[in-house]
UniProtKB/TrEMBL annotation, chains A, B:
<dbReference type="Pfam" id="PF02132">
    <property type="entry name" value="RecR_ZnF"/>
</dbReference>
<dbReference type="InterPro" id="IPR023627">
    <property type="entry name" value="Rcmb_RecR"/>
</dbReference>
<protein>
    <recommendedName>
        <fullName>Recombination protein RecR</fullName>
    </recommendedName>
</protein>
<dbReference type="Pfam" id="PF21176">
    <property type="entry name" value="RecR_HhH"/>
</dbReference>
<keyword id="KW-0863">Zinc-finger</keyword>
<keyword id="KW-0862">Zinc</keyword>
<keyword id="KW-0227">DNA damage</keyword>
<keyword id="KW-0233">DNA recombination</keyword>
<dbReference type="InterPro" id="IPR000093">
    <property type="entry name" value="DNA_Rcmb_RecR"/>
</dbReference>
<feature type="domain" description="Toprim">
    <location>
        <begin position="80"/>
        <end position="175"/>
    </location>
</feature>
<comment type="function">
    <text>May play a role in DNA repair. It seems to be involved in an RecBC-independent recombinational process of DNA repair. It may act with RecF and RecO.</text>
</comment>
<dbReference type="GO" id="GO:0006310">
    <property type="term" value="P:DNA recombination"/>
</dbReference>
<dbReference type="InterPro" id="IPR015967">
    <property type="entry name" value="Rcmb_RecR_Znf"/>
</dbReference>
<dbReference type="InterPro" id="IPR034137">
    <property type="entry name" value="TOPRIM_RecR"/>
</dbReference>
<dbReference type="InterPro" id="IPR006171">
    <property type="entry name" value="TOPRIM_dom"/>
</dbReference>
<keyword id="KW-0234">DNA repair</keyword>
<feature type="zinc finger region" description="C4-type">
    <location>
        <begin position="57"/>
        <end position="72"/>
    </location>
</feature>
Length: 198, 198
C-alpha cells in the first residue's frame, strides 16, 4: 500500500533486532525519521563503525578495537587465574562484582550441537593454546547453569583432564535474599547437596 | 570497565530507540555484533538511506522519496475528499480498512502547546493552502480521540469556519465485538448520545 521502498527497507532492517516485529519496526522507523533524526544518524554511523573496527582480543576473545583488550593488557590482574564465560555480557557482570581480579576467556557461545555450534565455534582450540602457553593455575568455569552451559563446562573439564591445573565451577545455590518458599526445587535440592559446614 | 569506545558509542546510540535502556542496548549491541552482522550492516545503510532520501509528499505531507506520493498521484482516488490524520501510521491504518478512497493530509503530530507544538509545527498553513487550492468537498477529521487529538480537530474546524466545505469527524462508539460490561463509561455515554436510528 505504501509506495516508499526506502521506508520499507528501513522497516525490514529494523526487524532484524531481536524482539522487534513488523508493527514495532514501523513504529521505530517513524520515530527515527520524525523525532530523532540526529539519533538515527548516530546510530547508523555507530553500527558501521563497530562492524568495521571491533575485533576480538587475541588473548581473551572479547570484543575490542585493539589487538589485546584492556583487561588482558592490564598489569594489575592475576595472570594465573582464568575465568571462562560464554558471552561478553557475562564478563561484564563478573567485572561488576569487583570480586574477581584474574583473566578471562570469552567463548562467544556455548556448545549446542543442534544449532551447529561445536568446539571449534566456541574457540576451544584457542582456549587450550592460551592455557598451555601461559602459567595458569586455576580455571574457573563460569558458563551458565543451563543444560548447554553445563555441557560446555563438562566438555572443557574433560578436554583439560591430565593437566595439572585446578579447575573450579562457580557455586550453585539460593540467590542473595532468596526465600526457600519461592525457589525452584532443583536449586533447593542442589543447595542441600552442596551445603557448607559452618 | 570496558575499554572499547566504539562499542560504548554503539550502546549509547542504541539507547536513542524508544523503550531501549542501558541493559537492552548492550544486549542489542552484542546481538548485532555476534549474531547478525549482516543485518546490522543493512540496518546501518537503511537508516542512512532513509535519512537521505525520504522527504515529505508535497501534497499530503506523508513520507515519500518522490515529490508526490503514490496515493496523491493515483488516478483512482476521490480528489474531493480529504482525511486529516496525525501520523503516517494512522494513514496506514486507514488504508488497511480498504473503506476510504479519498486523499490524505498527515499533520505529523497534534497540537500540544506544552510540548511547543503549535499550528505551524503541524503544518496547518500548508493544509489550508491545499484545501483552498483544490476542490475539496469534504474534510474528514481523523485525529485521535485524545485530549490533544480532539483539540487539534476543533482547531482545524474553527480555522475553516466559513468555508463551504462539509466537515466530519470519525465516529466514536463501542468497538467491533465490544461488550458493554467492559467498556469505559465515557465511551458508553458517547455511544448513547450519538445513537443511530434503525
Amino acid at each position: 500500500m505504501k509506495d516508499t521502498e526506502v521506508l520499507q527497507s528501513l522497516v525490514d532492517a529494523l526487524k532484524c533486532l531481536p524482539g522487534v516485529g513488523p508493527k514495532s519496526a514501523l513504529r521505530l522507523a517513524y520515530y527515527l525519521l520524525q523525532r530523532n533524526r540526529k539519533g538515527a544518524d548516530t546510530l547508523s554511523q555507530s553500527i558501521s563503525n563497530a562492524l568495521e573496527q571491533l575485533g576480538h582480543c587475541k588473548l581473551c576473545n572479547d570484543f575490542t578495537e585493539q589487538e589485546v583488550c584492556k583487561i588482558c593488557s592490564s598489569q594489575k590482574r592475576d595472570v594465573h587465574t582464568i575465568c571462562i564465560v560464554e558471552m561478553p555480557s557475562d564478563l561484564l557482570m563478573m567485572e561488576q562484582t569487583h570480586s574477581y581480579k584474574g583473566m578471562y576467556f570469552v567463548l562467544m557461545g556455548r556448545l549446542s550441537p543442534l544449532d551447529g555450534v561445536g568446539p571449534k565455534e566456541i574457540h576451544l582450540d584457542r582456549l587450550i593454546e592460551r592455557i598451555k602457553s601461559s602459567e595458569i593455575r586455576e580455571i574457573i568455569l563460569a558458563t551458565n547453569f543451563t543444560a548447554e552451559g553445563n555441557a560446555t563446562a563438562q566438555y572443557i573439564k574433560e578436554l583439560l583432564k591430565g593437566a595439572e591445573i585446578k579447575m573450579t565451577r562457580i557455586a550453585r545455590g539460593l540467590p542473595m535474599g532468596g526465600e526457600i518458599e519461592y525457589i525452584d526445587s532443583g536449586t533447593l535440592a542442589q543447595a542441600v547437596v552442596e551445603r557448607k559446614q559452618l
